[in-house]
Design goal:
Helix content is about 45%, strand content about 10%. It has about 350 residues and is mainly alpha-helical. It folds into 2 domains: about 25-100, Endolytic murein transglycosylase (Dna Ligase, domain 1, 2-Layer Sandwich), CATH 3.30.1490; about 110-310, no CATH class. The relative contact order is 0.09.
């Protein structure tokens, strides 16, 4: 009889000890506010046993058997969804099981697209966020290999429908700060930029039509102005100067169009750069280049559509960004000496 009572007592004690550890771990445990985030991935086909083992290995739980035992109480343990989760050490079995059953958490990110960025610039920025450049260029097209944009986008954005067959989305991805789900990159960001472009340019496209201007030409000019000028006022004047040159059949002679091809990052083209054989070499070719050279912002677009009326034909900027304008070549040479000492 004593032996039976002893065994019962031992059993009760063991049960009490088990519950003392199991109940907090299963329902009450909470991670410390200072606990680091643990990236935890569940792969397709993994079982509760596999997950419990990985949770223990990664330091999320202390007792993998306890998580498996909890599975007999809570059926959600057996319904995990594959994906990546952000966990913390000390989370309860219940909170883990619920999170895994709901599926991966959506992560919203902020994507800042700068005025004057090219498609290449944006692709590099998105790559840092985990989005492959190939997926981006598959939608936008890639000027480097003459790959056009995905024409399915033109079904949703009428302003894309009349573009040349070889066109990319260079110039049409409106620069701004956007919030998107990370797992929806890059298409969600591209579509938000196209939506914003449609809103920002709706009135401009109407105005261009009334002025008898081709809006794509306005956009191409705006992209050059974005790269060549500084503030809003300077953009208006530079747009006026470039418009004057176009009107009289004078070459634009812009370094930015050459740099778009050679991608040297130089503010001023070298003599070797000027020998570039390309329709983007506006020293050798008169008129506008065949496509935008970046994605311009509102000020550059407005300047290209409504340039300042001026008699100037020349401009330059010194190392500090100060602008110099001239009506004649001789005056321009004097400005070059003031700006560069040459």
């Amino acid at each position: 009889m004593r032996k039976i009572l002893f065994l019962l007592g031992l059993l009760c004690l063991s049960a009490a000890v088990f519950l003392a550890f199991f109940v907090p771990a299963a329902w009450l445990s909470k991670p410390s506010s200072e606990a680091p985030t643990i990236r935890f991935e569940i792969k397709s086909g993994e079982t509760a046993k596999d997950i419990a083992a990985h949770l223990k290995t990664d330091g999320v739980i202390l007792w993998q058997t306890g998580y498996r035992i909890y599975g007999f109480i809570d059926a959600t343990v057996g319904r995990p969804k594959a994906g990546v989760f952000n966990l913390k050490s000390g989370m309860s079995y219940r909170s883990l099981a619920r999170m895994f059953a709901l599926g991966p958490q959506k992560e919203e990110i902020e994507a800042k697209v700068i005025e004057g960025w090219t498609l290449e610039d944006e692709a590099r920025s998105l790559e840092k966020m985990g989005s492959a450049p190939a997926a981006f260029f598959a939608l936008t097209g890639n000027p480097k290999n003459d790959k056009p944009f995905n024409r399915e986008l033109a079904q949703d954005y009428s302003f894309l429908s009349g573009l040349p067959k070889s066109a990319t989305l260079e110039g049409y991805l409106f620069p701004n700060t956007y919030r998107v789900w990370r797992d929806q990159l890059p298409e969600a960001l591209i579509r938000k930029q196209l939506d914003e472009f449609g809103k920002q340019t709706a009135a401009m496209r109407d105005a261009a039509q009334k002025q008898g201007k081709n809006f794509r030409d306005v956009l191409i000019l705006a992209s050059i102005v974005e790269k060549e000028a500084t503030d809003a006022s300077d953009k208006k004047i530079v747009a006026g100067i470039l418009s004057n040159r176009l009107r009289i059949g004078m070459a634009l002679q812009t370094d930015s169009t050459i740099n778009y091809v050679i991608q040297a990052g130089r503010a001023r083209a070298t003599l070797k750069d000027l020998e570039l054989v390309s329709p983007y070499n506006t020293y050798k070719n008169k008129g506008l280049p065949p496509a935008p050279i970046c994605n311009p912002g509102h000020d550059a677009l407005d300047a290209a559509l409504n340039p300042a009326k001026t008699d100037y034909l020349y401009y330059l900027h010194d190392a500090d960004g100060k602008s110099y304008y001239a009506k004649t070549l001789e005056e321009h040479k004097r400005n070059r000496f003031k700006a560069y000492g040459e």
